[in-house]
């Protein structure tokens, strides 16, 4: 593994730039997916924070996909030999909202490749820094952590971390397969853990379809949009354990005394944290 890590660290500093246009249809489609009664959108309308993930999508041909539905290893991301790739968390700083119709650019750079040892075995964390430009201005800076893990092992997952017992802000929803399918389609995410139940059970040892990490993050931002008096300026978030389709999920927040920050989390039906975060306004 040492030789592999030395080779993988050669990816640090690798860069890529992508362009896109903030079209209206994905915004309308995600609003419908989240069951929001948002007007429009029309040219010039602000796009909710975090919805930049609807753009800069990677459209690899089917022959370039791995067995898990992700693009095969290599390319921009380093070819980590561990078989499972998951969204681990990140940090986003928002300068301003994107607007429908704007020309966008995202500059990306691999800034870290780090091995760790966890309860499930060997891990490799890859951190990517993204800078999103809208009409030539910086709209967001983001660091995205990706974790690569060993193959799944039989047995029940650890129980996880209990969620706080009460929250000032709360939104509840059921993570049904239609919600997961629509979000996968909107983000062109082919990872089979989100739609292939047989693959989840037989290959990943999961009891059900996995709710996307970015979907949970968008739900945290949406909760702030529903309740906070000011827009989010920064969000730090971390995925703790999977949450599965059919679960009644709660999205929760507790603002601090002066309303400058809020602790955020998603919880499954058993009251365990799936994702935690801190928003600064």
In this structure, how is the largest beta sheet organized?
10 strands, antiparallel
Q: On the 0-100 scale, what is the average pLDDT?
A: 93
Measured between the Cα atoms of the first and last residue, the distance is 42 Å
Shape: globular
Q: Which residue ranges are poorly predicted, with pLDDT under 50 across at least 5 consecutive positions?
A: none
N-to-C order of helices and strands: HEHEEEEEHHHEEEE
Task: Outline the secondary-structure elements.
Elements: H1 2-8, E1 15-21, H2 25-33, E2 84-94, E3 103-118, E4 121-134, E5 137-149, E6 169-174, H3 177-186, H4 197-202, H5 213-227, E7 234-239, E8 248-255, E9 261-267, E10 273-280
Antiparallel strand pairs: 1-3, 2-5, 2-7, 3-4, 4-5, 6-8, 7-10, 8-9, 9-10
Helix pairs in contact: 2-3
């Amino acid at each position: 593994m040492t030789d592999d890590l030395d080779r993988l660290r050669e990816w640090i500093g690798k860069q890529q730039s992508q362009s896109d246009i903030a079209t209206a249809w994905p915004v309308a489609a995600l609003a419908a997916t989240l069951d929001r009664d948002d007007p429009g959108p029309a040219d010039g309308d602000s796009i909710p924070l975090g919805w930049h993930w609807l753009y800069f999508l990677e459209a690899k041909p089917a022959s370039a996909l791995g067995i898990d539905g992700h693009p095969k290893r290599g390319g921009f991301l380093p070819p980590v030999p561990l078989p499972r790739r998951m969204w681990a968390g990140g940090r986003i700083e928002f300068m301003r909202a994107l607007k429908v119709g704007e020309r966008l650019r995202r500059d990306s750079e691999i800034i870290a490749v780090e091995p760790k040892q966890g309860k499930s075995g060997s891990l490799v964390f890859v951190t990517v820094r993204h800078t999103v430009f809208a009409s030539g201005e910086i709209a967001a800076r983001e660091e995205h952590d990706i974790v690569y893990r060993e193959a799944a092992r039989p047995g029940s997952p650890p129980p996880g971390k209990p969620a706080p017992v009460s929250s000032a802000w709360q939104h509840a929803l059921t993570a049904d397969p239609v919600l997961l399918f629509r979000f996968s389609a909107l983000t062109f995410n082919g990872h089979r853990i989100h739609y292939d139940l047989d693959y989840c059970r037989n290959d990943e040892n999961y009891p059900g379809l996995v709710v996307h990490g970015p979907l949970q993050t968008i739900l945290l931002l949406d909760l702030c949009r529903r309740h906070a008096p000011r827009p989010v300026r920064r969000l730090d978030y971390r995925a703790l354990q999977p949450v599965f389709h059919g679960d009644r999920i709660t999205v929760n927040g507790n603002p601090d005394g002066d309303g400058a920050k809020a602790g955020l989390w998603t919880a499954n039906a058993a009251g365990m944290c799936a994702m935690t975060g801190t928003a600064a306004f």
